[in-house]
Specification:
The protein is 49% helix and 0% strand. By secondary structure, it is mainly α. It has a domain at 8-66. It holds the Pfam family DUF2805.
């Protein structure tokens, strides 16, 4: 199960950001932080206000882009190319 002692506040913030992003699959969070979808749900429930958690769960439930196996093969990136402008 998830251990919060190994996550920094910056890690938690980034995981929350990735979980809210439509095109970032749960598998990407698993690869980077070792947290599967159930662990992300626990983290989100703990870190968000109850109303924000409910909005997030409603948003991601059944969303094809949040699961690699359900995604269209044409989507080969996790974010918009202009998202991280430099």
């Amino acid at each position: 199960m998830l251990t919060y002692s190994t996550l920094t506040p910056a890690d938690i913030s980034r995981i929350i950001e990735m979980a809210w992003e439509d095109r970032t699959p749960f598998e990407a969070i698993k690869t980077l932080y070792g947290l599967g979808e159930p662990d992300v749900r626990v983290l989100m429930r703990r870190e968000l206000k109850p109303s924000s958690f409910r909005l997030w769960r409603e948003r991601v439930s059944g969303r094809k882009t949040k699961h690699l196996q359900l995604r269209s093969p044409e989507i080969n990136r996790g974010y918009c190319p202009t998202q991280y402008k430099r």
